[in-house]
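Morning F.,

Quick status update on the modeling queue. The single chain you submitted on Monday has been processed. Sequence for confirmation:
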Amino acid sequence: MKHNILLVEPTIKPNGVALLKEHGCVTMAPDGEAQTLIRYINENKCEAICTRVEQITAEIFDACPTLKVVGQHGIGLDNIDIPAATAHKVRVLNVPDSSHITVAEHAMTFILACSRSLKINDDSVRDGTWATKDQRSTHDVMGKTLLIVGLGRIGRALAVRAKAFDMKVTAYDAYVSPESGAQIGVEMIPDLNEALAQADFISLHTPLTPQTRGMISTQQFQVMKPSAYLINMGRGPVVDEAALIHALQEGQIAGAGLDVLEQEPPQPDNPLLTMNNVMFTPHIGGNTIEASMRCSQILASTVLEALDGKDTYNWVNKF
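Structure tokens below.
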């Protein structure tokens, strides 16, 4: 029996769509507004929905009794009300392993770009000033200390790459033992502020939870080296943005590489946009062509398996 599956425009990659259409009946919603999703799910008796950034709230679970599976195209699940899904016996799936290397590569790109003041140097060519090496500081990463906050798949992949550049790698993660870190040559430091004080580069790879929201704030910036760079590849609200702006304005840290922000896209008057020691990408850390294709393939296949009652490896709210 073919299952009814809802996709939302813009949707997952064509390879995933093709797989779902081969084995299911696919409907496309024109947008991700709650009332649109509720109407399309109920009118088409959809048993599954594949999401990207859409907010899947308790209201949707309450209103859609046919829904059995929510498949998230990516790792982060902060757009889905997991307790409400569990209460309604709706399986939530994500794709934790399609883009961890991709995100790690992006973090390494930021580390190298920050160390060489890439934005300032690029601007100096474009604006005709051709500023020389005596007018700014650039650094080797060899011998510098990288602190990885969150030593999951992404953090571990970044550690491997940083060690290839002869960096010293430390990590803070309450769920990873010192023995586990030592297996990949990473020193686990149990106190966040102590770890921050030692680091030349800090790379954030934590999910957004009540515990991690604002975990990098005024106190944390105060203990960082003035030569340190902050890389955020997790979620924007993990960093207190007002505190980050103050830290940069006061020279408490040297700069930042940000793939994520508290508000995306940012307001035009966000002070971060005027700082030449801050580099941005538009939340694309895990979004290469190869990673997106992998993610869509894995998501489509596991959504179909879940609809058939199979125990998929990426079922995050088992009940």
